[in-house]
Specification:
With about 400 residues, this protein is α+β, with helices and mostly antiparallel strands. It folds into 4 domains: about 140 residues, no CATH class; about 80 residues, no CATH class; about 50 residues, no CATH class; about 55 residues, no CATH class. Helix content is about 50%, strand content about 10%. The protein has a 5-stranded antiparallel sheet with strand order 3-4-5-6-7, with helices on one face. A two-stranded antiparallel sheet has the order 1-2. A hairpin with a 4-residue loop joins strand 4 and strand 5. Helix 6 runs antiparallel to helix 7. The two termini are about 50 Å apart.
């Protein structure tokens, strides 16, 4: 049985920071043990958008699409750029072209009088803030709930996206809370060894003091009966045995820490061996372990189940099956890419950033032909495939 591990952009960025930290320390001759967890904390910064009420009060912008949008009762202007020198963006222009003569887009133009009924179907419009779903409102004392996109962004940093890809909101929320609880539990487990180490040091100090007292009593053995001297010697021997046990416990803890550090370094080495394409995605050279122990370490990294597997030959065959399965997936992906290349793309603008829109599927691609998302229901925002694409968009905005 084989499985596939998915590396998120956030995880790969954290690995790069971790490698650079070790490289810089090595140049400076330092050997401080880093806090690995700090490298995997999401550093994505989300810019705060103006509230809907503030957007509704902005003056008309002649460089943007003049269509009016209805957002939770507020009337705001479309933020996309006009299409081919016109006054509407491509989306609203297509919407207008499908209407009968004499009709207009539903909520009219932002630079014209606000209608009380939709201009395409004549449905009544209730303007004004809607309390049940107001945005950026400070009047509601209830605690804001996490959006599904935010929960998916967090889960992508801890588990493969195939686990939560098709989950509904209730199931996704439950999985999110479970992973958060695991994170809190792991923090307590990291603190517990430090507490135990302090307790061991206190016990050692107490036993050393007891030993000093025993030695002082032995020095005065001339005035102590022989039977009492024998008991004191036994106590001293027991103290020495306990000291040896304490030293062995401390040594074991130090060995565990060293072993954990070695495992992390070996994991990074295995990941480098798995991808020798140096960023090109071509001529990948998979790692070929030579022992069962090396295969187990590699299988742990790749999430390959080896329960019940015995012998070097069995591990070698399982790894060969895994590489063959990955090659088949790469061939299927290449065929899909070729099909996408035949699609018809039209360049569009969203918040000052250029994108490509597939007229057949409505999918949004960046200028490198990477699928970044799709329009939402109101066609005024993009539902991003990955949080990293949203972050790149925010950084590219003028």
């Amino acid at each position: 049985m084989s499985s596939t591990i998915r590396f998120t952009p956030e995880f790969l960025a954290a690995c790069e920071l971790l490698w650079r930290d070790g490289f810089d320390k090595g140049v400076g001759g330092e050997d401080d043990f880093p806090d690995f967890k700090s490298f995997f904390v999401s550093a994505t910064k989300v810019k705060e958008d103006p509230s809907l009420e503030e957007s509704s009060k902005l003056p008309f912008n002649a460089t943007k699409c003049e269509a009016r949008l209805e957002k939770h009762g507020w009337a705001i202007q479309c933020t996309r750029s006009p299409f081919e020198g016109g006054c509407l963006c491509k989306t609203h222009q297509n919407m207008l072209s499908k209407l009968d003569e004499g009709k207009d887009i539903p909520y009219g133009r932002f630079n014209q009088e606000r209608p009380d009924e939709t201009l395409d179907k004549g449905n009544p419009i209730k303007w004004g803030p809607k309390k049940t779903r107001s945005k950026n409102s400070n009047s509601s004392p209830t605690k804001s709930k996490l959006k599904m996109g935010e929960m998916r962004d967090y889960l992508s940093t801890v588990i493969p996206n195939t686990v939560y890809k098709d989950l509904k909101k209730a199931e996704l929320t439950q999985l999110y809370e479970q992973e958060k609880e695991k994170e809190n539990t792991s923090d307590e487990e990291e603190i517990q060894p430090l507490i135990q180490e302090e307790q061991v040091e206190e016990q050692v100090e107490e036993q050393v003091q007891e030993q000093v007292q025993v030695e002082e009593q032995v020095d005065n053995s001339d005035t102590i009966p022989f039977s009492e001297q024998v008991e004191e010697v036994q106590v001293e021997e027991e103290v020495q045995v306990e000291e040896v046990q304490v030293e062995e416990e401390v040594q074991v803890e130090e060995e565990v820490q060293v072993e954990e550090q070695v495992q992390v370094e070996e994991q990074v080495q295995v990941e480098e061996q798995v991808d020798n394409g140096e960023g090109t995605g071509l001529n990948l050279e998979p790692a070929h372990p030579k022992t069962v122990s090396e295969y187990k370490e590699l299988f742990n990294t790749l999430n390959i189940n080896y329960d019940g597997m015995k012998g070097l030959r069995a591990f070698k065959q399982a790894y060969a099956d895994y590489l063959e399965e990955e090659d088949n997936k790469t061939e299927e992906l290449s065929e899909d890419d070729l099909q996408e290349d035949t699609s018809s793309f039209e360049e569009t603008d969203f918040e000052g950033v250029s994108y490509l829109e597939d007229e057949e599927t409505g999918k949004i691609y960046n200028m490198k032909h990477q699928h970044v998302g799709k329009w939402n229901e109101d066609v005024d925002d993009i539902i991003w495939v990955w949080a990293v694409y949203k972050e790149t968009h925010e950084q590219s905005r003028p």
